[in-house]
Design brief:
- By secondary structure, this protein is α/β, with parallel strands linked by helices.
- The chain has 11 helices and 11 strands.
- The strands form 2 sheets. The protein has a 6-stranded mixed β-sheet with strand order 7-8-9-4-10-11, sandwiched between helices. Strands 1, 2, 3, 5 and 6 form a 5-stranded antiparallel β-sheet that branches.
- β1 and β2 form a beta hairpin.
- α5 packs across α6, α5 runs parallel beside α7 and α6 packs across α7.
């Protein structure tokens, strides 16, 4: 759903019509949720974060399964990024637990979580603009080795680092740009570089925080193709405001509102959920 289309949604019928068109557009690509007997990769138990009297995240029970592309959507202020910050150790929960592949990681620092196999991108570009595209990714690949603090050692002598960096760049379509300074990339390419940096740490779970924010429709389409390509290599948990992207790639969607999980299901279920319609539009079906 492009930005211009979003601004035209004012009524429940507008919402349903737009969602129906998008689901039909992507019907061949949207698949059912991973299903039964899948390994639980990430799980939260009554996860809560409050800042004074504000409960930014309130008793969230989230399950991310093996093989999933799982999207989290919700209005601004719903608690999505705060949730991501807790999952990756940048914020400590006020209450509740986080488990990754059965291991409790609630109080782990970000570097510990990264070494376990969780990587993330941020809403704002977080790259080294004056280093080359390759160097940005090579540093990430080196960070998970036993040589991460050997700053003066020739990286070419560190086993596997070059291959990991080049493979990550190939996965995101930036291998031909490897020698360019990162600041000279287009906006969409910088977002892809962030994903390459994350992939270079060989994560089992990749968290993407509004990766298409600021992208043109063409760049968003390329991002959809990228997620399709890498989803077989890594489990993806995605925060995204672009409904077109969410419907294109998601097996499962969790809707948050005011810090709580409001609804959860496959795209067709979310489209018909009255609570979701009310959260986004402030209206309910009068019929």
């Amino acid at each position: 759903m492009g930005e211009d289309e979003v601004t035209t949604i004012r009524t429940l019928e507008d919402y349903r019509g737009a969602m129906s068109r998008l689901i039909e557009k992507h019907r061949g690509r949207v698949v059912d949720s991973p299903g039964k007997n899948k390994e639980i990769i990430l799980q939260t138990d009554n996860l809560t974060k409050h800042f004074g009297g504000l409960r930014a995240v309130d008793s969230v029970n989230l399950i991310v399964e093996e093989g999933a592309i799982h999207s989290i959507i919700g209005p601004n202020g719903a608690g999505k990024t705060t949730l991501f910050n807790m999952l990756t150790g940048f914020l400590q929960p006020s209450e509740g637990k986080i488990k990754f592949r059965g291991k409790t990681i609630t109080k782990f620092a970000p570097y510990m979580i990264s070494k376990l196999g969780i990587a993330r991108t941020f809403q704002i570009n977080s790259i080294f603009p004056d280093l080359t595209v390759y160097e940005n990714v090579r540093i990430a690949a080196q960070s998970i080795t036993n040589y991460n603090f050997r700053l003066f050692q020739n990286y070419k002598t560190i086993p596997g680092v070059q291959n990991k960096a080049n493979k990550a760049l190939e996965n995101v379509g930036l291998i031909e740009r490897r020698g360019l300074l990162a600041k000279h990339l287009s906006y969409g390419e910088k977002r892809r570089l962030e994903i390459a940096i994350a992939l270079a740490t060989e994560p089992k779970l990749l968290l993407l925080d509004e990766p298409t924010s600021g992208m043109s429709p063409e760049e968003s389409d390329r991002f959809i193709d990228l997620v399709d390509q890498i989803s077989g290599k890594v489990i993806i948990l995605l925060i995204e405001h672009n409904v077109d992207v969410v419907l294109s790639v998601s097996h499962k969607i969790t809707v948050m509102n005011q810090g709580k999980i409001l609804a959860e299901g496959i795209p067709e279920q979310i489209k018909e959920d009255i609570r979701v319609q009310e959260a986004y539009l402030g209206v309910v079906d009068a019929s």
